[in-house]
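Structure in, sequence out. Go:
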């Protein structure tokens, strides 16, 4: 459904050029739900905007839904749906049903075909009965379901969802996940979505592309990603940067250590069994003249997967936003 090779985009800014997306390869099969996971600024939206013809790539080529991205942008657009990151602010009087029908008519459907399509799409996203509501009156969850419905009115084979659940409460998120899954299961829709939520990628995606600094750093099923760091994580809090570097070297030299990464304030050591490993690690640190300010032993979280892959935490990245 998608084949992209060396797709890249840079921007000229006042402070110099930014390589928002470095040359990436991407393959998506029909009927797959693929999650593009990464922190703010990773290049997710830029990737989606290129794949939807909204932004010209600086380099590379792609076939999207059977059409050449650069050579046949109109064909690409006809066959795909795109739901942008944050819904544009609606004008006061716009009604749900009206807006959906208008969108379908803009895509070339007749009035009756557009109304028929509304009858199919609205219940799919739990919008049945809300057609007469003003957009401004919708809850966050309803509004996001409306956004997705908008992207589906012209019956695309492939839909791109940019952060579909950001800002929604947990219940609305789970609800939208269910709808997206059923669209794939029932009508074979192919879905590419971006998210900075690991639980979202985990719950929804058949395959996750981990994106960081404009590059795809991992491409695997959620289970396989998690399996990479089965084991426990022993976290040594060390504020001083030089001491952290020393501690990292000590941990690397220790036996039965699988992985060592440092964050802004700690050294995280992945081992098979944290309870067994902590005492010898502490002795080795002590012998090197290092005394951590805190020690914790944890089962790995999904965030640790990201930290292991990228050397920084998804949570840290998103706190600035
Ligand atoms: N139109 C633009 N002009 C300049 N820089 C941009 C533009 N769009 C995106 N960027 C930069 O490209 C990088 C990736 O942005 P984006 O694709 O929006 O990331 P994400 O969606 O993963 O948060 C960021 O550093 C962002 O500031
Ligand atoms: Mg984005």
């Amino acid at each position: 459904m998608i084949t992209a090779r060396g797709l890249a985009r840079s921007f000229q800014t006042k402070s110099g050029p930014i390589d928002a997306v470095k040359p990436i390869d991407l393959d998506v099969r029909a009927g797959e739900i693929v999650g593009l996971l990464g922190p703010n600024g990773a290049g997710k939206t830029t990737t989606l905007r290129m794949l939807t013809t909204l932004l010209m790539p600086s380099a590379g080529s792609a076939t999207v839904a059977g059409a050449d991205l650069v050579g046949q942008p109109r064909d690409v657009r006809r066959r795909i749906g795109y739901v942008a990151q944050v819904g544009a602010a609606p004008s006061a009087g716009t009604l749900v049903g009206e807006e959906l029908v208008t969108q379908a008519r803009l895509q070339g459907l007749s009035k009756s075909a557009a109304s028929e399509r509304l009858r199919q799409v609205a219940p799919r996203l739990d919008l049945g009965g809300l057609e007469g509501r003003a957009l401004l009156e919708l809850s966050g969850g309803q509004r996001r379901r409306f956004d997705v419905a908008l992207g589906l009115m012209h019956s695309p084979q492939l839909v791109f969802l940019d952060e579909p659940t950001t800002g929604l409460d947990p219940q609305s998120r789970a609800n939208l996940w269910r709808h997206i899954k059923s669209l794939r299961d029932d009508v074979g829709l192919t879905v590419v979505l971006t998210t900075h939520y690991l639980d979202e990628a985990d719950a929804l995606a058949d395959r996750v592309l981990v994106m960081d600094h404009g590059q795809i750093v991992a491409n695997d099923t959620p289970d396989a990603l998690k399996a990479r760091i089965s084991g426990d994580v022993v976290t040594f809090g060390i504020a001083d940067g030089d001491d952290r570097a020393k501690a990292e070297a000590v941990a690397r030299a220790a036996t039965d250590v699988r992985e060592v990464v440092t964050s802004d304030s700690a050294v995280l050591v992945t081992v098979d069994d944290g309870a067994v490993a902590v005492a010898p690690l502490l002795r080795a640190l002590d012998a090197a003249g290092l005394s951590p300010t805190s020690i914790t032993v944890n089962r790995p979280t999904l965030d640790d997967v990201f930290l292991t892959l990228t050397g920084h935490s998804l949570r840290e990245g998103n706190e600035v936003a």
